[in-house]
Amino acid sequence: MTQATIDGRGRAARASIGKDARGGREQARRAPGLVPTIILIVGSLYCVLPVLWILIASTKSNGELFSTPPLLPSFSGSFWDNLAGILTYDNGIWLRWALNTVIYAVGGGLVSTLIAGAAGYALGKYTFWGSKTIFRTIVAAVLLPPVLLAVPQYLLLAQVGLTNTYWSVLLPQLVSPFAIYLCKIYAEASVPDEIVEAARIDGASEWRIFHSVGLRLMFPALITVFLIQFIAVWNNFLLPFVMLSNNELYPLTLGMYGMIMPTGGQPNQYSLVIAGVLLSIVPLAIIFLSLQRFWKIDLLSGGVKL
Amino acid sequence: MLLVAPAVLLLVLFTFAPAVYAFVLSVLKVQVTGGLLGTSTAQVFAGFENYVDTLADPEFWDSLGRMLIIAVIGVPATLFFATLFALCLDANRARLTGIWRLAIFLPYAVPGVIASLLWGFLYLPATSPIGGQFIDYFGNTGIFFAVANVATWGVIGFNMVVLFTAVRAIPKEIFDAAQIDGASELQIALRIKLPMIAPALSMVALFSVIGALQLFNEPTTLKPLTNAISSTWVPLMRVYSDAFVNNNIYGGAASAFTLLVMTVAATVLVNVIGNRISKRSAR
């Protein structure tokens, strides 16, 4: 799991062969190897400590949050109180928010990955009238700031009565220029023309080639695109912020933002919010880190060379 | 092609149509008509009035300035540390790299709003484990570093992995040759690896700049915790409050378009600089 992870397999073998060849020199200069490791440890601490602190803080009651040393956990049993507190807050609305988040992020992520996969495959494997222009226009759309679109999206959806529904958050996020860009690059790189040709000679329809050859070969990329889309939707704060007024439809981010909002800096709900933050980070972190060998981020840096 | 149809359709419906609509809104205004007998309002053509208003508003420039300060702190910091970590991960004798890479990647799995809430507690004097009692993270200068830090924390791991994969894609023979020529590992990192990942670096830079220009989540989420952030603190917050709080969608659309023009200009600039650098290093 150490080497054959994010960057794909085969590296480990190559790296170790390289090392053997340089064995002699390696012994002579072992000391400098400490420097990169120390830099990496410092970087890891910077990235992990805030999450650890949330774990520590979640063991404290509101009073203890302000009275005990920040880096020491408390064993007064407040951890369970906080968990129970956030789960029963406002008749268990936190769980409703969590469910909404899953609907938005998983649903939106899946559908947008499929749409991007289809578009990317088509743009990568076929040239047709306007295909270059379409691709350039799609990529240029990355530049449009979401807030610019939020106002008219709201007005347009309001006209068809869709604001303040699940659709208002899902629909605008179904197509992602960045995901289409990734899929196109990957389709070009990983779906060989020869196979498409061979399938054509065998009499397969273009549609059949797409779903039984193209999609299969693109599958590893589609997983990455899904994960990126999942994070993008789960991160999108503005769209639900603008579209939703019924807090039963809120995703977690918006719900917890609302929990600190009305108090205006008055800390009476801090311990609950901290427990909520913990509850929303930990499962996600576990899912993402355990899925990490499916990440194919090389397709990102691979795209640069084309 | 049928396969592109859903993407194009949705893009037209939810991106281009709203963009055009936003432009139309930005050149309209509301006029109150009817004098004594009840008033009614009508949309009338305003020309570039809304744009003039935006450009004449000092608060617009202030918010732009704040965004630039955060970008100037956050973008180079992200690039520098992501590159540093990527090179260290690839260093021959670095230990346990799998663990460090996972650890640095972890914040990417934390949504921006949650990250802002989390860091907000770390900054608050009452709950801070990092010296919030002594350091004013929400002070006049501290606030810029505080916001830039949250943004950097969230994206550093992702950028590191992108750059690391780029380093890994360099053929190993080059390093062996350099080593035989007597190059130290530091020299290899700085003189071979760094120039060879220049294309990936310029892409990461481009995304960081776009990200900085679209800064919204972090300051909005930190806002309830401090008075240092106003509702128009960065341009996108201003657009939001114009459109949805002050009910001035026309002014909001004009500000958003002004910002879009600036984004495009900045993107072109970064692209040109990036191309220059990668061309020079290719020579």
TrEMBL record, chain A:
The chain crosses the membrane at residues 34-56, 102-122, 134-154, 166-183, 217-237, 270-291. It is found in: Cell membrane. It is a multi-pass membrane protein. PROSITE patterns: ABC_TM1. The keyword Cell membrane applies. It holds the Pfam family BPD_transp_1. This is Carbohydrate ABC transporter permease. It comes from Humibacter ginsenosidimutans.
